[in-house]
Amino acid sequence: MQAHAIVELEEGSLNVLVGHRDGGDVVVDRSVRLPLPDLSQASLENALRSVGSDLLMGAKGVHVVLGERRVFHQLATLPKLGEKDAVAFVSREAMRHANIHSRDDLLLHTRLVKRLPGGKLRVATTAFSKALWRPLAEAFAAQQVEVLSLQTMESCLALSREAAGAEPVAIIECNGNRARFLVCAEGAAVQVRRFLISGGGDDNEMALATQLTMELPRTLDWLRETGQPTPKRLVIGTRVALGDESLQMLNVEDDAIIVRSVMPVVPAEGQATPDLGLATLLHHVANGRAPASLLAEPELRLPAGPAVLLTTFAAAGVAVLGGFSAVVDGGQWLEQQASQRQVEMEAQQLESSLMEREQQQAPPVDPGVDAGLQAALQMRRPISRLLAEISNLADDNVHIDSLKFASKSPVVITGFAEGDTRQQALAAMVRFHSKVDALPFLVPVDQEEMHEASSGYRFKLGLAWRNQ
Known about the structure:
Helix content: 25-40%
Distance between the termini: 20 Å
Structural class: alpha/beta
Strand order of the largest sheet: 8-4-1-2-3-14
Number of helices: 12
Shape: globular
Radius of gyration: 25 Å
């Protein structure tokens, strides 16, 4: 059993989450909250001393999640640029918004969300100053705890299934006596507002309901004033302890949909429920899909489009025709034939390289995956298991219309989720989607659609075969 450990840092508390993958589930073995007075090096060192190796259950390191108000998140549209120019562009924007004066003092992660017509790029960015991270990194080093990656709480919440889709979605999650209102779109954090829960923490339902009733209208007004779209779907996090009656008290838009988040992991008996962001990160890490770290050098990988491939083959064709025009005798003819074959081989290699580059958007598989399963998946596609699993995962409220697959093409699932109410239909679709994402021989790709129908939701899920 390979243990994966996550440590969340936010002023007031330090949360430790340890879990492992058990078949198709990710099980939470430890979920502990410890006091953390502030985000200083001394306070963190004292807290880490109480963690110890026993609590981490032999994990080789920790993934650190930082909840800090000075972190910068943005989902922006860029003009048609190359990879280096796009990274330089978002770096300048992050430095301006975060008031950072030197590029060397910037921790930055950026990724391509989608290409837009005209060559424009939709890019998600997360950044903050190294000066904020440096004392925390020294505290981990002093306690000999290896940091495997650095994430932000907002980016982890945006990884959740509830945040998928092009339409903006609001997520409310709590951590002790602090609440976070996050607006996500296309799997990226857009805007965030934090506020204190007066009169208690996330275990005091009355205090929490009262605070949210006051804060939600202010937050929606703030979004309108800043020119941001108002989300029509509000997701309640796993640590927001509100009953159905309290949810009905929340003062939100009349046409807004309020849904509860679906826990992507299974807490062991006696373990506290982790918040949605940490649970989502643990699910990704345990399934070999850990997001990129802010400690890594920023890069923006742009998949090669059809125009690039066509230009490459056109150039190869021109080179071959130009060579044939210079043939004057049999010896030169043979030489040109050999040159033609060489060009054709290079073109095929280039095509394969470009296809592999597009597929590199999916993170590599965790080396801890069973070697026998990995070898089997490299030899053939488990089609019979795919048909059986998809059929078994669809409950009474989910109807599968079609299941399309091929050796190299994506696996496409279309269907319909219904229920007595829109909330029930949406919850049924989310449950099915989460179970499909947990299948070990598939990885999700950005080819998902959802639209409302008369009595539920129609959906289209895109996945790819896991080749490693």
